[in-house]
Every structure is written in structure tokens, then in C-alpha cells.
Amino acid sequence: MHFYILSPLLCLGFAHLANRKGLGAASAWTLSAGGVIALVSLASGSDRLQHTLLVFIPLFLLGIVANAVWQNGWRPTSALMRALGFPAFLAFAGLQPWVSGIGMEIVARMVLIAIMFSALASGRGFFYWLCTRPGLAQVGIASYSVYLVHVQVVQAVFLVTERYCGSLGGIGMAIVVAVSVVMISVIATVFYCIIEKPLLGYAAAFRKGVPLHVKNAVRRMLV
Known about the structure:
- The chain has helices at 2-21, 23-43, 53-71, 79-83, 85-93, 102-121, 126-131, 134-141, 143-165, 170-208, 212-222.
- By secondary structure, it is mainly alpha-helical.
- The two termini are 29 Å apart.
């Protein structure tokens, strides 16, 4: 919900900065500012701040920067970068037990996301091929819905599995992971089709209906 509220402001702010300072400088300033906000939030000692978007804002800002870089036409050609895509994905999935502190975790995840993005942006290699399979591509389209529902689904599956299997050993955790992946994919896809996609359609229709003078005013704000 926080990101839904702040996303338009973040995107407009980044576009405004990129138009004035250039994409490279805007990206550096944006990610640096996001890092400072996250560090200040973590250092505050406030439980409320440590569980808000402020701590994770570098990850969202990285997505905005990555999209701008992609739209600008950047395509990596390094074979090494293409080869690192799938190992980076595996490291991302199993990262948490190997890092200490949420700050280090966010930094590590940003690095791994950047590597995966570069591998996908190349348009070649095994990781690109895997991620463009129809089933995974559909999950990718509904990825924000996945983000919205995954915690609740995992918690529910964990509680039910623990209730009927007792202490969760290796088999119990394997059940939790397998069932969670399937349920998250199904529920997120339904959520996307019923809620997110119609809302995106309404937003697109609204943008088409915005008067020209309003669009020009917004463009002038970004120059």
C-alpha cells in the first residue's frame, strides 16, 4: 500500500531529475538517497520504521532505475553477465541465512537484482530463456500481486503444515515451500486478473482522457 501511494511521486521525481541531470547522475543520486533513507530508518531503533517501505525503498528505486535504463536502450553484451543470471537467482532465493542484519541483506539483494536484470536485458542465455517461458512470464506479469500476497500465503501454509505435521523438519519445510509456491502463483494470478489488471485498464483509460493542456503542464514540470 505504501508503494502504491508513493510510486507516482517517486517515478515523477526520478524523471524530473533525469531530465535535468542526465540518466547516470539521476540513477546515482536516486540509489544513494534510497540507501541513506534505509540506513537512517534502520538506525532509528523504531520497530515501526523498520517494518515500513523506508527500509526497503532502495529495492523499489532500483526497479525504477532499471526500467529507465532499459527504456534508454542499454543492452549488455557480456557473456559473463549472461552466465551469472541463474546463479544470482539461486543466491537471491537462499540468501537470508547467510547474511547478518537487514541492512546487509538489502545491499546483497540489490547487487543480485542488478545482475539478474543485466542477464535478462541481454536478451540471450539460459536465464533469459528460462524467464521467458510462458508460465514464468505470466507469474512475472503478476509479480506485484505475488509481492502483495506471498507473506500471508506462506504464513497460512506454515501454520497448517505445523499443525498437522508437528515439528517442521526437512520434509515439513519442503512441503511448505512446494505448497507455498503453487498457492502463491495461483492466488497472485487470480488477484492480478480480478483486481490489478482491471485497475491498470482504468488507469490507462483515464490517461487517454486527460486533457492535452494537463499533459503539457506535467511535461513542463519534468523539463
